[in-house]
Amino acid sequence: MPRLAAVARVLGILVAAYSITMLVPAGVALIYHDGQAIHFVEAFLVTLAIGIAMWFPARNTPRELRGRDGFLLVTLYWVVLSAVSSLPFHFSPHLDFTDAFFEAVSGFTTTGATTIVNVNAVPKSILYYRAQLNWLGGMGLIVLAIAILPLLRVGGSQMFKAETPGPFKDEKLTPRIADTARALWLIYVGMTLANVLAFWAAGMTFYDAVCQAFATMATGGFSTHNSSFAYWNSPLISAIADVFMFLSGMNFALHYLALRKGRLSVYWADAEARWYTAFVASSIVVVSLTLLFTHTYPTLGAALNYGAFQVLTVITCTGFTSANFGTWPLYLPTLLMMLAIIGGSAGSTAGGMKVVRVYLAVKQSFREFRRILHPRAEIPVKLDNMVLPQRVVSAIWGFLAAYILVYLMFMLALMGAGMNWYSAFAAVSACLNNMGAGLGQVGANFAHISTAATWICSISMLVGRLEIFTFLVLFTPMYWRP
Q1: Residue 1 binned pLDDT confidence (cut-offs 50, 70, 90)
Q2: pLDDT (tens digit per residue) in 287-300
Q3: 314 membership: H or E segment, kind and range
Q4: Are 82 and 478 in contact (CB under 8 A)?
Q5: What Rg, from alpha-carbon coordinates, does the chain have?
Q6: How far apart are the first and last CA of the chain?
Q7: Mind listing the pLDDT tens digit for each residue in 204-214?
Q8: Contact assessment for residue 213 and residue 188, using Cβ atoms and an 8 Å cutoff
């Protein structure tokens, strides 16, 4: 059974520390004189008070966190931060609590779905705030907290394992978990700065460049314009976004190792990176050629421009758009939604099931084919010439089974809340995979779905961001037993 006092103590510290981030958009509001600064200050004070109220009664409890404490802490952290982060959306543009909570969850989980109909009419500080939510949620606020808060040195590994995506959560780049988190964030910050400068040089305003780079690196998808990247109608800007979305969909540990060793061969030596690259390239070829042969776009260059952008934005679960892909011909809209199910690499900011899980599931399937022909053969499953323990292989199949069941449950729940099956399929794909862009009733935004459907989608985003097991384990009787 988790120790609730220890969890409350650390959660209070984290929430109080997070309150400081509310002051940054307050500064943006003062720069642009949009009248929102007071709302962010109010949100800062409320968040700080909540953090202190959680911490003070439990301030004298032991600091050490156990393994099962981490799962509860991470889940509560995302829920509580989404709740307090909804305050600015409630104050302006005056969303009700359901829609404001949805907007905050969508930002933190880097989903990019929105209940705001007219983004162009929203104050600049609120749009910046959405991008900031994307950026902070991208690498994970828990990882950031482990890197900078010395109070979390003890027990930090439990939080890191619960927060980081992928099947290999025990691997560390550096001997100390805080150094690992710090290394990942340095890479993340450095790539974000490069992305900002690239967008700015390509013709965006500095404000737009910062907001779009935050959302691109986090694969979050919140844009500052209704038409997203179609607003700029620039092949150069789209190409820059393609590059950084592709890099964000890769394992950040590889970026760290490539920088430390000074060799690009690090990427090619990694099986998941090779399969991810092949998956992206083949998808771009299929989508672009289909757009060309159906005369959706007149030239190969235009088909590649729009095809590559939309493939990368759904595979990495970013959710930007440069065209209304819901109107594209034949199988393309459904194919793109299905690409988001696979998603990017483990250890990236992308959503989905992760390429490495699908790759290993396929390898194990072929192993079963061989076992049919050679029943007594011992055939291991390997990744980069390393034999995987059966525990890892079983965990992957367990995750895939849980994913399918959860997907169907959310889809049926949305249909029960009034959606048709096609819109429900698109909504679950958008939310559970943290991709954002949808089809049908949620093609433009999520503003017109029912209150029940909005809450179902909010829960779906949280479950997807926490990779299902971290969330579902809290609902098992075994977890709460002493």
Answers
A1: low
A2: 999 999 999 999 99
A3: helix 300-315
A4: no
A5: 22
A6: 5
A7: 999 999 999 99
A8: no
